[in-house]
Structures are given as C-alpha cells and as structure tokens.
Write a structure and sequence with these properties.
With 203 residues, the chain is mainly alpha-helical. It contains seven helices and three strands, in the order αββααβαααα. The chain has helices spanning 3-19, 47-57, 70-81, 114-123, 128-132, 151-164, 170-182; strands at residues 23-30, 34-40, 95-98.
C-alpha cells in the first residue's frame, strides 16, 4: 500500500472514530485534479472539524452541498459509478460504504423481469411479491413433479416458455431450423457473411 493510500485510510479511520463519520463514498480520477472522493451522508457534521482533518493530512478543497431528496443523491452517485475504471485504479475499490451505516448485500437485490419470474416458477422459488413481503420460502416438489434445480437448464426452459408466449410455433420452428443447419443448407460461419445460404453463394 502506497503512502497516499495509507494517508487516506488513516484520515477516514479517524473521521469515523472522532466524528462517527459515515456514508457512501465513490472514488473518481479527474484529468486535472487527480483522485478525489464524492461522499453521500445522511447526517450533519461540523465542517470546521472536517477541515481540521483536511489540513492535518494535506488534502485539497472540500465542497459541501445539500442533497434535498433521495433520488437526487442516487443520481449524483450513479453519475460517477458508471464511469469506466481507469487502468491505474485497476485494483482500487471505486466505491464502498463506511462507518455505522446499514449495508445492502448482493443477495438483498431482487430483479423483477418476465424471465426472472419464469425462472422462479420453474425452480420453485418464492414469487417477487412473497420475497418483498418477507414471507417467501422455496416450494417443495409434489408427487412426480420436480422443480428444476440446475440453473442453466431452468434458464433454457424459461426462454422456451417466454418465446411460446408470443410465438406458439417457436419450438417447431427451432426444430426445423436445426434440421436445416444440420443438412448444410446454411452458411453460419459468421453473422456478417453476405452468403447466408450455400445455394446463394456466387461461383
């Protein structure tokens, strides 16, 4: 760990201990000003106290602005989260929560799409509504019926069910297409080939 990283870590550690500083921070590499942090916090702090830490560790300017609503704060952080990672920050943590603040775990994130709903049904998982209401449990197989436990096979089944929803002949069409390819009537070596069908190729 370089001296700058140690200095930043020491400053943040003291801010958490002395001021109970907490929030979410995002690291950004600016073309002119180098590395700096964008921080969102849900608590007011005495700016003079933070200025003392800034002067002690030799940091630059501090700019404080009020986030008037949650959506504004989220947009502010997302603006910097979606930026490409610079090569010099390949191993750096670009964002993290710090201090005494509630974290959101990856397993707490629930996606709700037509495909994910089908996957949940095929694999016997609780519905989106049950998950959000915190009453969801995995369903049990009944009789000869068994829920799919393999994710890849479940995804294939969900894709078939999804396409059948607006194309009833999807399975039949795919079977015919597979036979046509197996017979060698289609040149699919690369998608941008001008000769899609072997019989259409120019001599």
């Amino acid at each position: 760990m370089g001296p700058d990283k140690r200095r930043i870590r020491s400053a943040l550690l003291l801010l958490k201990r002395k001021l109970q500083f907490r929030g979410v921070r995002v690291l950004e590499l600016h073309e002119k000003h180098g590395c700096h942090f964008h921080v969102i916090t849900n608590k007011r702090y005495a700016i003079r106290k933070i200025q003392e830490f800034k002067e002690r560790y030799g940091f630059g300017r501090i700019d404080v602005r009020e986030a008037r609503d949650t959506s504004t704060a989220i947009r502010y952080l997302c603006k910097y989260l979606v930026k490409p990672r610079p090569g010099c920050l390949r191993r750096a943590w670009l964002w993290s929560a710090f201090g005494d603040i509630e974290r959101t775990r990856v397993r707490d994130i629930v996606t709700d799409t037509p495909t994910s709903r089908l996957l949940r049904g095929i694999m016997g998982k609780p519905s989106i509504e049950d998950v959000l209401a915190e009453r969801g449990r995995d369903k049990r197989s009944v009789g000869r019926f068994r829920f799919e436990t393999n994710f890849n096979r479940a995804r294939e089944k969900a894709q078939i069910v999804y396409f059948l929803g607006f194309d009833p002949a999807y399975v039949e069409r795919q079977a015919i297409w597979a036979k046509v390819k197996a017979a060698g009537f289609v040149n699919y070596s690369h998608a941008w080939s001008p000769a899609r069908h072997i019989g259409m190729e120019k001599p």
